[in-house]
Specification:
About 30% of the residues lie in helices and about 25% in strands. The protein is of the alpha/beta class.
């Protein structure tokens, strides 16, 4: 077998890029899609030439589907992933892995009991931008990494998103929405996290939707919308991270910088796959832009499930693993726990630093 059949559950906004990309990877065959709104599933199936639109139960009962891509809202990530695992399917889920740590542990335990794999977005660290930065660090261009800064400064989503309510409910907020991109990139570049200190807050108790579909609707804000803190990694590096939906006048702060004993590395936005990547060494007055490694510089969502399929076919670990996603999930909650308790949070999970992508691969292959 050189292909694995895939089914997508959840046909909302994010599904389009997965549907567009899945069949580009030689190891995947997109066989079906499902949604609570069957008409939406049928619309996506027609648009992306997917053979079958169906209910979730029908998709899970299809013995030919090996991998389920779970693109539902965060509040039901665990419920849908657990149903898929119990049906004997490997699962790749959009970020975050689950809404709570308890759910995350249950998903990983169920996968282990069933002998199945769990993977999770974000997969942007597969992109040429992060992979180029990883190689520069590995090559010692900036010396030993000692610190990092990371900023996700935003005004929120109610002014553009047609259904923004979940961004301000439990499982939402800037940390759970965008934190996975930044934390996953930092773990890829610096390794697992050891300790976190955080402070959280919010600018407004409610938001008013100004996007067209639900214009004027007030939504309660049930989760912090400004989360700031400090992380110490197992390798000793210390990072500052701020994620916010309360930046109403814009920001010029860089997405990620890594500071080493011999220089500084500018890392591109971890919500993208491309660059630019720049560095400046001790004694230099100008930044050097590093050519990106060959690979995935465009939006390549779908590469995570493809890597999972390739790992299953070739008997190796997959990179966007459940363990990585759970470590990131714990880190996100750690900022909130630390803020609520006024204490440092010592991480209880750990994960392996994902292996770098080989640089000599044919397009849309992982092995």
């Amino acid at each position: 077998m050189d292909k694995m059949k895939v089914g997508i559950i959840g046909c909302g906004k994010i599904s389009s890029i997965y549907m567009e990309n899945c069949n580009k990877f030689g190891v995947l065959e997109l066989a079906a899609c499902a949604d609570l709104d069957l008409s939406r599933a049928r619309e996506q199936a027609e648009k992306y030439n997917i053979p079958r639109a169906c209910t979730t139960d029908e998709l899970l009962n299809d013995p030919e589907i090996s991998i389920v891509i779970n693109l539902t809202i965060p509040a039901v990530h665990a419920e849908v992933s657990l149903k898929a695992l119990e049906a004997g399917k490997h699962v790749y889920v959009e970020k975050p892995l689950t809404a709570t740590l308890e759910e995350g542990r249950l998903v990983l335990e169920t996968a282990k009991r069933k002998g199945l794999l769990v993977g999770s977005a974000p997969e942007t660290f597969f992109g040429s931008g992060i992979q180029t930065a990883l190689k520069l660090i590995g090559d010692g261009v900036i010396g030993r990494p000692v610190s990092a800064t990371a900023f996700m400064m935003s005004r929120g989503h109610e002014f553009w998103h047609p259904d923004p309510e979940f961004y301000y409910a439990q499982g939402g907020g800037p940390m759970f929405d965008m934190g996975p991109y930044y934390l996953t990139a930092l773990v890829q570049l610096l390794g697992p996290i050891q300790t976190i200190a955080g402070i959280t807050g919010k600018a407004h108790e409610q938001r008013i939707i100004t996007s067209e579909k639900k214009y004027g609707k007030a939504i309660p804000v049930d989760i912090p919308t400004h989360v700031a803190g400090t992380l110490q990694f197992e390798n000793g590096a210390i990072a500052t991270l701020i994620t916010s939906f309360d930046i109403f006048g814009g920001s010029t702060l860089p997405p990620i910088e890594i500071h080493g004993t011999e220089g500084t590395l500018l890392v591109p936005d971890p919500n993208t796959f491309g660059g630019p990547v720049k560095y400046r060494k001790i004694g230099e007055s100008e930044w050097t832009e590093q050519p990106l490694l060959p690979g995935y510089a465009e939006n390549s969502r779908g590469i995570g499930p493809a890597d999972m399929a390739s790992a299953l076919l070739h008997g190796r670990p997959h990179r966007a693993s459940g363990e990585l996603a759970y470590h990131v999930l714990e880190a996100m909650w750690a900022f909130h726990y630390s803020s609520d308790s006024g204490r440092y949070y010592e991480m209880k999970s750990r994960c392996d630093q994902p292996a770098a992508l080989p640089v000599d691969l044919e397009p849309y292959t992982l092995d």
